[in-house]
Amino acid sequence: MELFSSDLQRTLRTAEEVAELFGVKPFVDRRLREKSYGEAGGKPQEWLDRRFVPPPAVGERMDHDEGVEGSETKDAWAQRIYTAMDEILHNPCEHQIIVTHGGSLTFVVASWIKMPIELAGYASFRAPSGSITTLGEDDFFHNRQVLNLSDTRHLDSAQAA
């Protein structure tokens, strides 16, 4: 079993707890981070909301300028995650755990199902914090599947304890 995590504090803390449960050491990979919003970093959400330019419904979405200086494009973000996933999946390991962020999950899943990156601008596989998404490949056809998306049942049992 292998465990990979973004290097940002909240995901790394989760990864360390999961790693302890499975007796593995997390591999930290900054490419699994959430999208960078450049100069918006550390500022209130309302600051970003006033400047943010949403992508068009049709047309160029991956290189769209969102109106925030230094912000990572969706294409750069996707390329970063896809590259990390290619390397992770190249490892011959039966079970892999990836601890990342809600927005980055879209590109983890899109990469897993081999969605062409240029089409990933229309995809969204969002999940709440602490949720678990399970991806699998069947042994016969070798089709890649999203077995469950953003499962939070484990959080209910943790709160009851």
Kindly report the average pLDDT value: 94
Percentage beta strand: 15-25%
Task: Describe the main β-sheet briefly.
Answer: 3 strands, parallel
Distance between the termini: 28 Å
Whole-angstrom Rg: 17 Å
Query: Could you name the ranges where pLDDT drops below 50 across 5 or more consecutive residues?
Result: none
State the total count of DSSP E strands: 5
How many distinct domains? 2
- What overall form do the CA principal axes indicate? globular
Strand order of the largest sheet: 2-1-3
Contiguous helical run count: 5
Helix and strand element order: EHEHHEHEEH
Helix content: 25-40%
Structural class: alpha/beta
Give a brief outline of the structure.
The protein has 161 residues and is an alpha/beta fold. The chain folds into two domains: 10-21 and 31-35 and 73-161, no CATH class; 37-71, no CATH class. The chain has helices at residues 9-22, 45-51, 74-90, 102-112, 153-160; strands spanning 2-5, 26-28, 96-99, 132-137, 144-151.
Any overview of this molecule?
Strand 1, helix 1 and strand 2 form a beta-alpha-beta unit. The longest helix is centred in the middle third of the chain and has 17 residues, at 74-90. Helix 3 packs across helix 4 (102-112). The protein has two domains: 10-21 and 31-35 and 73-161, no CATH class; 37-71, no CATH class. It contains five helices and five strands. It is α/β, with parallel strands linked by helices. It has a three-stranded parallel sheet with strand order 2-1-3, covered by helices on one side. The chain has a two-stranded antiparallel ribbon with strand order 4-5. It starts with a strand and ends with a helix. The chain is globular, with a radius of gyration of 17 Å. The protein has helices at residues 9-22, 45-51, 74-90, 102-112, 153-160, and strands spanning 2-5, 26-28, 96-99, 132-137, 144-151. Helix content is 35%, strand content 16%.
